[in-house]
Amino acid sequence: MHAASAAGAKMKGRRPPSVVTEIVYGMSLGLLAGYLWKLHHWSNQRHTREFYSLLDEGRISIVNCSEL
């Protein structure tokens, strides 16, 4: 009982957290994290496309290490 009254005294004068605000914060952070993940994915795709285009043009070559 004492802990509940101490928590109530701490919250005096403050509003309780809003569920809608918490949902908006969560969605915003989720969208930001998803966007950063997609940026990473697009960067990897670009590097792969560059590598294969250079390989097709003959500007670079690969060495099979198992034959060395």
From TrEMBL:
TM spans (from-to): 19-37
Keyword field contains Transmembrane helix: yes
GO cellular component, one term: mitochondrial inner membrane
Keywords: Membrane, Mitochondrion, Mitochondrion inner membrane, Transmembrane, Transmembrane helix
Homology family: Belongs to the cytochrome c oxidase subunit 5C family.
Predominant place of localization: mitochondrion
Subcellular location: Mitochondrion inner membrane
Biological role: This protein is one of the nuclear-coded polypeptide chains of cytochrome c oxidase, the terminal oxidase in mitochondrial electron transport.
Name of the protein: Cytochrome c oxidase subunit 5C
Signal peptide: none
InterPro entries (alphabetical): COX5C
The keyword Cytoplasm appears for this protein: no
